[in-house]
């Protein structure tokens, strides 16, 4: 019996290993290309883009095409969008809003309900026209606190709302960086955000909008996490873009885990003891799993291992059970 179980176990693990090894080969012919589009809060040396690139899977190429001082209007008018499309991306992450606000001048300002909305729709349509998949990213929050030093003064909400509406209407994945960064900044407070702040325009002041290197490293994981967790429609992007994909999403990994779980169950069912000798007729096999991976081979995962062993020996049930 033990020899048969060993052979079955070996066979199952070999099959799963072959499937796991074969999976990357199918993607070797094409290296995924992601292009970042936006203003200075995304661009190199002043935004989260550089740190985001470091979080990507090894087989992903990411190009940061964001430019400082750009709005959704000026990025189009200045030819930067055409240059981004010429890079032939598979995915395009698009974030604007800061320089679209009133006071930025006629060459950059947009109205969130009309021109900003129209620009976003154009980005989505033209990206799709070349076969790229757009992802809309709401504006990074400004770090300007109210007098209570706990809540932020929020001035980008009309542009955030407009982007969310376009994402819903056009069925585009959305990364709500505005909400995630607001949550983080308010949690950190005025003192906690200082490590992410570049120096402001006057000596001794803080920038409040752009990011230094540490700031990029604090914000970029929020974008990656939004994609990896599949929030607001971005799940189908997670499997291709980030290296944060939950292992259970990988089909070969799921097969490997299932085979491993089955092999453990067979092995335990074939043995004549757990912690202490238990008659075969009283033997209990309860497989408790977390996300498809065996966590305990005992009946209560909340109890310490010695207690589990004692209970398994003393109170073995008189029936076999296997819970997946």
From TrEMBL:
SUPFAM superfamilies recorded: SGNH hydrolase
One Pfam short name: Lipase_GDSL_2
InterPro entries: RhgT-like, SGNH_hydro, SGNH_hydro_sf
Residues in coiled coil: none
Gene3D superfamilies on file: SGNH hydrolase
GO MF: hydrolase activity, acting on ester bonds
Residue span(s) of domain SGNH hydrolase-type esterase: 37-215
Signal peptide: 1-21
Keyword Plastid appears in the UniProt entry: no
Keywords for this protein: Hydrolase, Signal
Recorded family membership: Belongs to the 'GDSL' lipolytic enzyme family.
UniProt-listed PANTHER family: PUTATIVE (AFU_ORTHOLOGUE AFUA_2G17250)-RELATED (PTHR43695), RHAMNOGALACTURONAN ACETYLESTERASE (PTHR43695:SF1)
Protein name: Lipolytic protein G-D-S-L family
Organism lineage: Bacteria, Pseudomonadati, Verrucomicrobiota, Spartobacteria, Chthoniobacterales
């Amino acid at each position: 019996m033990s020899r048969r179980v060993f052979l079955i176990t070996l066979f199952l693990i070999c099959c799963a290993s072959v499937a796991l090894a074969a999976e990357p080969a199918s993607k070797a012919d094409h290296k995924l290309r992601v292009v970042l589009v936006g203003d200075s809060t995304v661009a190199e040396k002043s935004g989260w883009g550089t740190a985001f690139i470091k979080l990507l899977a090894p087989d992903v190429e990411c190009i940061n095409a964001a430019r400082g001082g750009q709005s959704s209007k000026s990025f189009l008018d200045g030819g930067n969008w055409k240059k981004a499309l010429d890079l032939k991306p598979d995915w395009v992450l698009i974030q604007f809003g800061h320089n679209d606000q009133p006071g930025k001048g006629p060459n950059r300002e947009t109205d969130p309900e009309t021109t900003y909305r129209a620009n976003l729709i154009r980005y989505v349509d033209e990206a799709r026209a070349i076969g790229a998949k757009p992802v809309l990213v709401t504006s990074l929050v400004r770090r300007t606190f109210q007098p209570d030093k706990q809540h932020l003064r929020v001035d980008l909400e009309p542009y955030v709302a407009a982007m969310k509406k376009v994402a819903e209407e056009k069925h585009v994945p959305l990364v709500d960086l505005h909400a995630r960064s607001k949550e983080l900044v308010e949690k950190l407070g005025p003192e906690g955000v200082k490590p992410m702040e570049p120096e402001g325009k006057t000596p001794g002041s803080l920038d409040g909008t752009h990011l230094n290197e540490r700031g990029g490293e604090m914000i970029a994981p929020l974008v990656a996490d939004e994609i990896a967790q599949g929030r607001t429609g971005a799940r189908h992007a997670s499997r291709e873009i980030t290296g944060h994909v939950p292992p259970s999403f990988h089909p070969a990994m799921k097969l490997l885990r299932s085979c491993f779980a089955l092999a453990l169950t067979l092995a335990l069912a074939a043995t004549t003891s757990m912690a202490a000798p238990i008659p075969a007729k009283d033997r209990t096999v309860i497989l408790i799993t977390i996300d498809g991976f065996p966590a305990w081979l005992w009946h209560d995962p909340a109890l310490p291992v010695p207690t589990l062993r004692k209970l398994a020996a003393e109170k073995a049930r008189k029936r076999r059970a296997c819970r997946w």
